[in-house]
């Protein structure tokens, strides 16, 4: 079967909306209903965060969701089970995103095989070094038809962006600013110049812009130069307020309506 | 055996640079340049002059007669407690601030546990006229009050870390987040041999002055540079790395690292990483790490803020792996008693971190000819409140 992420970008090259949420937040059993509500709301792709005790790349909102999820008993094994249960109920791609340590402890090979079996389509492991990916992950992720996305940041050199583009599968995660995760009201001229520069590089893989997408303005600014965007912190904040399918639908509409 | 870091940044199966992309350019810049900068004659001159005239090096190697009698050995204390600011930490911060200037950075951040590294960083920032922010766990700010005020007097902003157990691990998380948010103008002065490559190697090199001096001093004192034992406490492991560095190849010198057992290794309130840890990734390196089977980092515990860390530097994880260093642990009570004992026998009140190293003496059978060097990593001024609260003196 064609990888669902590959397929998505074949049929849609613009305004791709990916939504990130932390597994097991606000409640351990919420993962499925949130995923289903997001698909019903017209989202193209979901990234489910594997909670970790020490999320150094995350701002306060996602930090808190990690802590609540862990306190509520969320585990890697439970998440894989939840994904397996959700998979038959939605058609969009599912990406798992998380820090390396919980994956290492689960066992890299075991994790990859079980993720693929559960119906995961892609992975984002922000603290996985490229060299280690090439040595220990690449062959197996290819065999299992799992795509792997890497991050690039405004400070990433052109040479390294090309290197990342060459080894990525699926999409490239373009971090919007030199920052931890967190909502921003709008993007600065510098950030927009960086989006433009990325666009002009004509990379092999589509870019999704993440970190700081929070409203129609940032959504549009991202879409001006990329295939789409990833919204995380502001969605987590929404879940904290109201996690009902109606509220989730409203959130997506507000974000994507100019 | 070779104990140096390899080209990829590993010591055996430990080390590396496990960092989000936002930190990659900084770490890469540092990796490419640190050795060249450290080897510049101009850098070396400035570094050595500051170590001599500002820090007060070489620190004495003091023959502790009454302690020797008590433990039936010939015990020397390497007096890092006499360094300016009261601990070995400043050897590293002097080195890193000189490096930061050459990297073109204007601002400095640091994490601190006991506050010694924070004070040492605040001090060199005052010296160089650089802006400084230090992250410190809220709990540690409470138990190391004097150091918080020392940093503030020196002009540093101390920011409380409020997550987790509000100790060293959490302060390190916050410092890393700050660096992600300020990558271009800021250098992060990590306080131990932890973090992504090249930090462990760089910090070990700056601290290696300790063992270089021990070699020279022992040569003068006893006619050869080789002790039978070197004992040092291990939080992240920087004072131990410095004390062991120039002896790693000399397998006849027994190297002993002392971890904090807290209320007992198996009490659930401990920071004895080699006893309790498994390989994992935290703060940018693969190392031994106290964690749950699900890969969540366990909040460590020790009475000493400087040893209250769930990992150890990757060099130490490797030295443990291959058996080059023997790791033992001392409980809160053992350390406090040893701290009082050193005070009474030698008139030296040690830092509570350091007291763990003293406490290890009772775990060995020595003979009077055995030459034992204890790295006296710091003095106890900052810990008076903890001593007072403990009360048994
Ligand atoms: C006096 C003293 N010794 C030891 C340590 C532990 O650090 P390391 O293991 O890096 O030497 C500290 C840390 O704060 C300290 O202040």
Overview of this structure, please?
The complex is a heterodimer of chains A (258) and B (393). With 258 residues, chain A is an alpha/beta fold. Chain A has a single domain, classed as Alpha-Beta Barrel (TIM Barrel). Chain A has 12 helices and 9 strands. Chain A has helices spanning 4-11, 31-40, 60-71, 76-86, 100-106, 108-118, 130-143, 158-167, 189-200, 216-223, 233-241, 245-256; strands at residues 16-22, 45-50, 94-98, 122-124, 147-149, 151-152, 172-175, 207-210, 228-231. In chain A, strand 4, helix 7 and strand 5 (147-149) form a beta-alpha-beta unit. The longest helix of chain A is centred in the middle third of the chain and has 14 residues, at 130-143. Chain A is globular and about 40 Å long. The model of chain A has no long low-confidence stretch (mean pLDDT 96). By secondary structure, chain B is an alpha/beta fold. Chain B has 2 domains: 18-50 and 89-203, Rossmann fold, CATH 3.40.50; 56-87 and 208-390, 3-Layer(aba) Sandwich (Rossmann fold), CATH 3.40.50.1100. Chain B has helices at 24-39, 41-55, 65-71, 89-102, 116-128, 138-143, 145-153, 168-181, 199-207, 209-222, 238-244, 273-276, 314-321, 332-346, 352-359, 384-390; strands at residues 10-11, 14-15, 61-63, 74-78, 107-112, 131-137, 157-161, 186-188, 229-233, 254-262, 278-282, 285-289, 325-331, 371-375. In chain B, strands 3-4-14-9-10-13 form a 6-stranded mixed β-sheet, sandwiched between helices. In chain B, a hairpin with a 2-residue loop joins strand 11 and strand 12. The model of chain B has no long low-confidence stretch (mean pLDDT 97). The A-B interface holds A 52-54, 56-59, 63, 67, 70, 75-77, 99-106, 126-129, 131-132, 150-153, 155-157, 160, 175, 178-180 and B 8, 16-22, 24-26, 163-164, 169, 173, 176-177, 180-184, 278-284, 289, 291, 293-297. Pyridoxal-5'-phosphate is lined by residues 87, 113-114, 116-117, 192, 233-240, 306-307, 351, 353-354, 377-378 of chain B.
